[in-house]
Amino acid sequence: MQSPNAPEHPAHIVRIPHFLFIMRLVQIFLSVVILALMAFAITQLTNVFGTFGYNIFCCIYNFIGVGYLLVSVARAPRIWNCWAALVIDIFGVIFWISAWGSLAGWAALGNIAYDSSALDLCRHYSKTDQRKCNGRKGAWQASAATAGLGAIVWVLFVVHLIVYSIHLHRHRTAPETKHLPSSGRALTEEEKGAEMNVVSPQGVYSA
To answer: Residues 35, 59: contact at Cβ < 8 Å?
Structure first.
């Protein structure tokens, strides 16, 4: 039950289960971990920035997109938009399936080259170059871990998109939200004032 002193839930914001908020926080946390792993891998490997850079771009996308959704709901509800939230999820699904899929392919090739007993490249290096070779091996292992974490982020986007889409449909078709702008934005002060000044038929004809 909502406390009488609790702030009123803005009508234009879609009510969603609390576990979706937890999923958003997990996405941000995993993005930080992925960013750190990619930064390490880039320092050890060359000519792989295309794939690794794309994963870094996806992390930045999470910081901006998911960060906007979290901050707008908590601190600035007027800038929250239901369609923007939907688009962020859709692009998140597309971006992250490409990110972890491409990185998994690269990581598989790298780990075969450096970990296979038949193709262990490090054994061909001199002792002075062993540290460099081990660093490259660690970079490929970090890439494999990043692909796994990226897959988790992608799954979270898919689950969030499905659940949010269901609640968005219920929100837009509910009788109490029929007056909201179709653009998904909040009502302006003028629109709120005009709505309050509308007299209902029951108010006109009541005794």
So the answer is: yes
The residue behind tokens 């960013």 is 35
Give the count of alpha carbons within 13 A of 61, CB side only: 20
Look up the pTM and report it: 0.74
Count CB-CB contacts under 10 A for residue 50.
9
Q: How far apart are CA 190 and CA 192, in angstroms?
A: 5
CA 5, CA 168: separation in Å to the nearest integer?
Answer: 27
- 146/139 Cα distance (integer angstroms): 10
| 61 touches 71 (CB < 8 A) | no
Q: Where is mean pLDDT largest: 10-14, 97-101, 119-123, 191-195?
A: 97-101
Rounded distance between C-alpha atoms, residue 26 and residue 15, angstroms: 20
Residue type, 60: I
Task: Provide the residue ranges of all domains of the chain, joining segments of one domain with +.
Answer: 18-173+185-205
